[in-house]
């Protein structure tokens, strides 16, 4: 049962985004969504009662729900949980839905995953195997959570930043692009999921590209401010990205 906050408005023009994962990225995107007049149904692993504070902060457009409620809510779902948790999701509920996957592979957190270490699949191709029928779009995975509010701008702003998206379903990718535009970013189509390694960790089109000072040492990135990254510069970075040797990753 959903708790706290007003239920999203039915009918009319109120768009709803389901968010599974209420951590750094999930909460940052939720803040953008309510600011853009999009209703949010947000879930985590501990249940709706643990989301009281966040939903109070987000205001009346936000509702805390179960994972099933977030998966069923609205037109799109943002999935922002560790890779290891994908297997526990209600895959049937996500079938046919546009699912924005923010996930990355960190062996230190996720354990070693042979299909990723062998480069047989990219992270979101793995998600596609685990969530059959979901229309996966990789998005919001290459930007640090604290840079999201720093860089979000209304459409038409001269200092707007772009995020890469990748997906195999053109309609879902178009929906994701339209949603992300409302949330405050341009998008660059980085192709299909098999090419989405171009904006995974260590690829070259990963988090440091949004840093005001790209030379900031890795240990200071969480405090470092962001600077806008326009779409043409992101396109150029994607062109020169290289596939990381994931099997050598130690973090
Ligand atoms: N942090 C960043 O700057 C950043 C940037 C780009 C991409 N990413 C990627 O985005 C994903 C999320 O990162 P994050 O930093 O937002 O993570 P986080 O702060 O650790 O939050 C993870 C969220 O996932 C929820 N969760 C865990 N297991 C779950 C399950 N079985 N079912 C439903 N929810 C579950 C957690 O629930 P509880 O709150 O109940 O524990 C928590 O809300 C990761 O794959 C990460 O690699 C992160």
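-> sequence recovered:
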């Amino acid at each position: 049962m959903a708790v706290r906050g007003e239920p999203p408005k039915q009918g009319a023009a109120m768009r709803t985004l389901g968010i599974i994962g209420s951590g750094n990225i999930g909460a940052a995107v939720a803040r953008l969504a309510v600011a853009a007049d999009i209703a949010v149904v947000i879930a985590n692993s501990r249940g709706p009662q643990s989301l009281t504070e966040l939903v109070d902060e987000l205001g009346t457009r936000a509702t805390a729900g179960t994972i099933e409620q977030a998966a069923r809510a609205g037109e799109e779902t943002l999935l922002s949980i560790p890779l290891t948790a994908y297997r526990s999701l209600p895959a049937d509920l996500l079938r046919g839905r546009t699912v924005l996957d923010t996930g990355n592979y960190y062996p230190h957190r996720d354990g070693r995953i042979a299909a990723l270490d062998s480069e047989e699949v990219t992270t979101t191709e793995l998600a596609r195997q685990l969530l059959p029928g979901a229309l996966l779009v990789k998005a919001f995975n290459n930007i640090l959570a604290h840079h999201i509010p720093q860089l979000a701008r209304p459409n038409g702003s001269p200092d707007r930043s772009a995020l890469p998206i990748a997906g195999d379903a053109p309609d879902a990718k178009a929906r994701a692009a339209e949603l992300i535009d409302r949330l405050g970013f341009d998008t660059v189509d980085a192709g299909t999921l098999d090419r989405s390694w171009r904006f995974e960790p260590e690829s070259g089109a990963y988090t440091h590209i949004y840093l005001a000072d790209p030379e900031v040492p890795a240990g200071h990135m969480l405090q470092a401010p962001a600077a806008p990254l326009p779409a043409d510069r992101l396109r150029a970075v994607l062109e020169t990205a290289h596939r990381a040797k994931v099997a050598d990753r130690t973090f």
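The radius of gyration is 17 Å.
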